[in-house]
Design a protein that fits this description.
By secondary structure, the chain is α/β, with parallel strands linked by helices. The protein folds into 2 domains: 157 residues, P-loop containing nucleotide triphosphate hydrolases (Rossmann fold, 3-Layer(aba) Sandwich); 75 residues, no CATH class. The chain is 34% helix and 7% strand. It is built from 11 helices and 4 strands, in the order E-H-H-E-H-E-H-H-H-H-E-H-H-H-H. It has a 4-stranded parallel sheet with strand order 2-1-3-4. The radius of gyration is 19 Å and the shape is globular.
Length: 259
Amino acid sequence: MKQPDFIIGGATRSGITALSQILEQHPQIFIPHRKEHQFFHKKNLLTATPATCRIQFEDAANVEYRTQIPEDRILHGEHEYNPTRAYAGCPYAKVVFTLRDPVERAYAQFHHALAEKKESVKTFEHAIESELSNLRSPDTTGQCWIYKNQYQTHLEHWFASYPKDKILILIYEEWTNPSHKGLRPLETFLGLQQDSLSLEQVEGFDPQGTFLSEKGSKVKKNPPMSEEMREKLEEILSIDKTYITNLLGREIAAWKHKV
C-alpha cells in the first residue's frame, strides 16, 4: 500500500474541516475517518510508527468502499504536525495550508478555547498581555495566541523539510468566497479537473449568507475586538502578513487592516 500523498498541515480555525468535507466528496480523493492522526504529533514521536498512520488508508484501494479512487489519491489532515517527522513518514507528500488573517484567527482561537474550557482567563486582552509579559510561553502552554499565528516561524520549519513547490498556501478568506474561485489553485496542485471542487459540499454552506453558517442552530458570535487590541496585534503580526504576501508574490486584500 502506498503512503499518504496529501497532507493538510493547518491552520486550525481556518476552514480545515470544511476543506476536508469538500475534498472527501471528490471521487479521486480518500480521507480516512480519523482526520487528525497522531502519527505526526510531537507528543508521539517515540510511540507511533509509520504503519499506524498507513493503516488508516487501507480502504483507499477498496473498490467496495468507493469507486474510482486510485490508490495514490489519498489525503490526511492533522492540527499540529512535526514537519521533520511528517517528511520521514511521507517524504513524497504534497502539503496544503489554509491560512486565515492571523489577527482574526488569534481572536477566534481564544474564544474557541474559552468555549471548550481550555482557556484559563476570561478576556482576550488578558491572554495577550500574559504572553507579551512572558507569563505564557509555547514551552509551557498551548494557549499562546500570538505564537500560534506567527506564520513565518511555523512555515519555515516546513520549508526546511519539504521543497516549496510541494507546499500550497491557500487564503481562507479567498477560497471561502464563491466569487473568487479560490479552490482552483488546489485543484491544479492536486491534479484535479478544474471546478471539480465545490463549496456546496460543505455542510451548512449558504451562498447568500456567510460561509459555514450552521443551519438550524444559533451561532454564537464573538464580541468585537477592541480597536486598541486590534492595532497592537496588527503591529505584532505585520511581519507574518508580509511574509505570506511575499511568498504568494501578491497582495492579500482581505488581510489589509481597515483603519
